[in-house]
UniProtKB/TrEMBL annotation:
Key word Signal present: no
Protein name, as recorded: TRAP transporter large permease protein
Membrane topology summary: Multi-pass membrane protein
Source superkingdom: Bacteria
Main location (coarse class): membrane
Domain TRAP C4-dicarboxylate transport system permease DctM subunit residues, every copy: 8-415
A GO term from the CC aspect: plasma membrane
Annotated TM spans: 53-72, 111-130, 166-191, 212-233, 239-258, 270-291, 311-329, 334-351, 357-382, 394-415
Compartments it resides in: Cell inner membrane
Subunit and interaction comment: The complex comprises the extracytoplasmic solute receptor protein and the two transmembrane proteins.
Gene Ontology MF, one: transmembrane transporter activity
Organism (species): Vreelandella aquamarina
Length: 425
């Protein structure tokens, strides 16, 4: 049965059927022809998959990100980042990374970060002489931080699917997010120096104090959201609703850029994005139920534990597997299907589930900037109005930088677990 389901998925993917629909159809084939279970299980298991309180954070964080983009918060974060690094050669490229780090501290979505920040910075970089494919590659790679720096939708999904503390996962995401962000900034500084890009970046930057004065309220948003979680004031799910309220009040009444007429399109876009994510979660829950019935997770666990002897080798194999999976399967679906299988095995090898969660998410985040199904690539291409093949020669450099960071995160657990150990002992 497992082979038939796998072949069904491959065929459906080949014909361009959306991932969520492909998973549901393959699951229906498995249930109908290889079990005696009623098809009533399909809607039942899909509903069970999304009937979890922590998942309520996803639509709220998506809505918060869209409100930030429309309410002027994104522009002010860009201006602040440019005031910090904009006077250095390549400062505009580096400010893209820095802005994405700040925006990610509330939005939780890399795609939302790509559209919100890319719409501002990609045209600005092109205006300053950066090749358009390079500008799009910088934006796509920087937006990856949206799934690492808390709050993070993939980390929420990992926590829900493996029963791991979402609060600890959020805390563990800070170190890897900063590491990758700083690595990209250092690389861009050296790259622009060698290639001669960004010599005039200083022309559009404003003074730091002026930009800080304009952006200080926007900067309060991650402080309120993240501080509230770790201060015990509210849960990560409740924090998502606070983020929406904060973005709405600041955009409408403080910056006065968010109008009543904007709310309709914002809510519509948020509903569409939420529906797409939730459909993937529901279909993955059905698929996971079917796999559990076949005993495949236990078979994989036995195979891995019998053939791999050390935790280091296990992590290496998992990284290789996830790199391939991330290229072809959407991050949310990959986490929901693979995390319940791989995490118990990791625990058997003595790997902390929080650390393993960060390894999984960082690895699958690479899939967002690698073809053929890199969602960040499609988003950046849409903003820059170019094709993916134009980006690829530039993109390789950024993929290698993130890969180096992934190896450090994998084999240096303190990068992700340092803050967790401090706060949770």
């Amino acid at each position: 049965m497992n082979m038939v389901i796998g072949l069904s998925l491959i065929v459906l993917f080949t014909f361009g059927v959306p991932i969520a629909i492909s998973i549901v159809l393959a699951s229906i084939i498995g249930i109908e022809f290889f079990t005696r279970l009623p098809l009533l299980l399909v809607p039942q298991q899909m509903f069970i998959g999304i009937d979890k309180f922590p998942l309520m954070a996803i639509p709220f964080f998506i809505l918060a990100g869209n409100l930030m983009a429309a309410g002027g918060i994104s522009q002010r974060l860009v201006d602040l980042a440019k005031s910090i690094v904009g006077r250095v050669q390549g400062g505009l490229a580096m400010s893209c990374v820095l802005t994405c780090m700040m925006f990610a501290a509330v939005s939780g979505s890399s795609v939302a970060t790509t559209f919100a920040i890319g719409a501002i910075l990609i045209p600005a970089m092109v205006k300053h002489g950066y090749p358009k494919p390079l500008a799009a590659s910088i934006q796509a790679s920087s937006a990856e931080l949206g799934v690492l720096i808390p709050p993070s939708i993939p980390l929420i999904l990992y926590g829900v699917s493996t029963d791991t503390s979402i609060g600890q996962l959020f805390l563990a995401g800070i170190g890897p997010g900063i590491l990758i962000g700083m690595a990209l900034i250092i690389f861009l500084y050296l790259f622009c120096k060698v290639r001669g890009y960004g010599k005039d970046d200083y022309k559009d930057s404003t003074g730091f104090m002026i930009s800080l004065k304009r952006a200080w309220v926007a900067l309060l948003m991650p402080v309120v959201v993240i501080g509230g979680i770790y201060g015990g004031i509210f849960t990560p799910t409740e924090a998502s609703a606070v983020a929406v309220f904060f973005a709405l009040i600041v955009g409408a009444f403080y910056y006065r850029e968010l109008k009543l007429a904007d709310l309709g399109p914002i809510l519509r876009q948020s509903v569409i994005s939420t529906a797409a994510v939730m459909l993937i979660i529901a279909s993955a829950a059905l698929f996971s139920f079917l796999l559990s019935r076949t005993g495949l997770p236990a078979q994989i666990a036995t195979l891995v534990t019998n053939t791999i002897e050390s935790p280091m080798m296990f992590l290496l194999v998992v990284n290789a597997l996830l790199l391939i999976v991330g290229m072809f399967i959407e991050t949310s679906a990959a986490i929901l299907v693979l995390a319940p299988i791989l995490t118990p095995i990791a625990i058997q090898f003595g790997i902390h589930p929080v650390h393993f969660g960060l390894v999984m998410v960082v690895n699958l985040a690479l899939g967002m900037i690698t073809p053929p199904l890199g969602v960040n690539l499609f988003a950046a291409c849409a903003v820059a109005k170019i094709s993916i093949d134009q980006m690829l020669p530039w993109l390789v450099r950024f993929v290698l930088v993130v890969l180096a960071c992934l190896m450090a995160i994998t084999y240096m657990p303190w990068i992700s677990m340092g803050l967790v150990n401090i706060f949770y002992g």
